[in-house]
Structure prediction request, 380 residues.
Amino acid sequence: MAGEDTMVVDAGRRELLPPGPPLPSTVQALAWALRPLEVMDRCYARYGNIFTLRVRRGRPWVFLTQPEHVKEVFTTDSELLRAGAGEANPLLGPLLGPRSVMLLDEPQHLSDRRRLLPSFHAQRMKAYGAMMGAVAEEQIERWPLGEPFALWPRMQAISLEVVMHSVFDGIHSMLERAHAVDGEWASEEKMRDELVTMLSDGPTATSLAWVFERLLRHPEKLERLRAELLAEEGEEYLDAVVKETLRLCPAVPIIMRRLTEPMHLGAYTLPAETIVAPCIYLLHRRADIYPDPLSFRPERFLEESAGTYSWIPFGGGVRRCVAVSFAQLEMREVMNTVLRELDLRPAAASSEGAARSSVSFAPDGGAIVLASRRMREALA
Ligand code: HEM
Prediction:
C-alpha cells in the first residue's frame, strides 16, 4: 500500500506518527465534517493501512485498518486507553450526559458496565425475541400500503419501542442491584444518563434500514432468505444477511480511544493523548479479508465465520457494545416479521448512499420503499 513505510516525525513531540494529509487541521476538520467516508477512502488509497488525520484541535487521530493493530488496541490494558467516543462526536456528551457508561473511564466504566450486563444476558433473549416480534407486528400495521415511504423512521419507532419494553425492566433491576451492591440508591442523574444511552439507540434502526435497502436491491438473495424463513428450517442465512449488512454498512464507522501513555504500534510510537481509531468502515472493506468487498454477499458468512478482529461493528475489548446479541436478535426478529407480512420493493431507481445522522450513518434517502400485504395463502 502506498506510503505504508513512510514515517513522519511529529517535530513538536519528537514522536513517530503514521503519514497523513499535509493540510492545516482546519481544512482536515472541514473535509471530515462534510465527507468523512470519502476522507477515509482517500487516505486509505493514498497512505495505506495506518494513517493520521488532524481533525479536532490538531490532536492526531490514527486510523487503524488491520486486524493485528485492532487486536492490539482491543487487548491493551484499559489504564492505557481512555474513552474516546466524545472526541469523534462532541454532541455525544450533551446528548448522552457525562455519566453515561460510553463516556466514563475506569474504574467507574467497568462497574457501570457490570450493572448493565445482566439485562443483556443470554437467558433473557428468548423473552426479548417474542417481545420484539410482537412490537414489529404491531408497528407494521401502521405502515402505508401502495405509496412510497421511508423505512428508517419506521425502524426508529420499532427500536425505540423495543428498548422501552426491555430497558425499563432493566433499569428497575439495575436500581435494585445498585441498592444492594453500593448500599445506596444510584443518583437520579446517573439513571437519566444510562436511560438516554439506551434510548438513543440509533444503530439498530439504522442497520435495519440498511438491511432492507441492500436486500431489496438483490432480489435473488431476498428470495433465498424468504424461502429459508417460510421453511422454518433455521436462521442461518438470516444471520448471514445481518452480518453482511453490518459489515458493508456499519452504523458506527469508527471507534476511538485516547492514549494516556505512548503506545508502540507496528513501526510507530504514538504519543500520549493520540486518539487511536480502529476503523470499522475501512477494515470491513479490505479486499484481502473480504474478496470483492463492495458486493453485498451474505454467503461469505456461510463460508467463513466472522473474525473477532476483522468483523467489528460492535467494537471490541472491555468497551464492546453490551447489546451485541440483543441488537442482532432484534434485527432478525424484525426482518422475519416484515418479510412474512409484506412484500417490499425499492421506490427509488438507484441504491442509496450513506449520510451522517446525529449518532450513526444511515441510507441518505431513509430507505424509501413501496409495501403491499402478502397474501396469507402465499405463505402456505
Ligand atoms: C446494530 C446495533 C448496534 C451497533 C452497531 C452498536 C455498536 C456499538 C459500538 C461500535 C460501540 C462502541 C464499542 C467500542 O467502543 O469498542 C457500542 C457501545 C455500546 N452500546 Fe451499542 N450498538 C448497537 C446497539 C445497541 C443497543 C440496542 C444498545 C442498548 C439497548 C447498545 C448499548 C451500548 C452501550 C451501553 C455501549 C457502551 C459499552 C461500554 O462502553 O462498555 N448498543 N455499541
User: Anything to note?
Assistant: The chain has a mean pLDDT of 85. The first helix runs from residue 25 to 34.
